[in-house]
């Protein structure tokens, strides 16, 4: 065993705060050097001081209450620090997965007017069953999902016959950020001759429809 | 059994002995260990784990002060301990106390032995 390893082993087993540990190790290093200056070999000096376990045990037994408390405090802080890092490491991906919403009027990605116009245009195409015109306004995934049958089923759940569009109702919209992507979500109420329906449309940053919900 | 008594007795007087050894001049830990061993004819062969906590305690109580030496050449820095003014007073009082203590202990032991 060399001096560095010997002192490290003692330091590890000491039950006191870090500054006191450093002080003890520095003094032991000084004693080893003094013994070696007196002609002892490192092994002699080490044997004279004692095995790492015994040296640490003797120090620990004679340590003051304040030093013992410092050790406990440091340990508690260390555990708290580790827990904090774990919580932080868990929180970062959770925050990343959870959507956050912001006021669309302050958005750098979407224009309130453009979102409203695009939403109304899509609703009109749906009312007219004009899926050909609708197609370029949707993401590739939505193009596969949105078919006449799907829309008819959704509409029939509300009414067999909506009738003609009479007026546009309230419009609410927010910007949603999730997993590093930005979306504009708009909810718009439409009054028809026979019923009223609320559409929730989601647009990606290219203003392509990426989500649709009718109720 | 006897070891326990020996340890307790030594513990009780070590602080006085350390203060006494520092009375005339400043000394470093290893030097105190060697002197204690030599002057007590090996009765007080203390190790670092016993001596240093005593020195830390004496320093906390203001009875000794310490300073690290500035090493010359390849020399390793040493921590020197020096007795303070209040340390000298405590030493004086504890020596008196020890004298009374040992006299009374001797007396009781002698009287008890003769009864």
Strand order of the largest sheet of chain B: 1-3-2
Shape of chain B: elongated
Q: Can you give the helix content of chain A as a percent range?
A: 40-55%
Quaternary structure classification = heterodimer
Distance separating the two termini of chain A: 77 Å
Uncertain runs of chain B are none
Radius of gyration of chain B: 17 Å
**How many DSSP E strands of chain A?**
5
| Contiguous uncertain segments of 5+ residues of chain A | none
Biggest interface, chains and residue tallies: A-B, 26 and 20 residues
Order of helices and strands of chain A: HHHHHEHHHHEEEE
- Rg from alpha-carbon coordinates of chain A: 36 Å
Strand content of chain B: 5-15%
Structural class of chain B: mainly alpha
- List the secondary-structure elements of chain B in sequence, H or E: HEHHEEH
Number of helices of chain B: 4
- Percent helix of chain B: 55-70%
Strand count of chain B:
3
* Overall pLDDT of chain A: 89
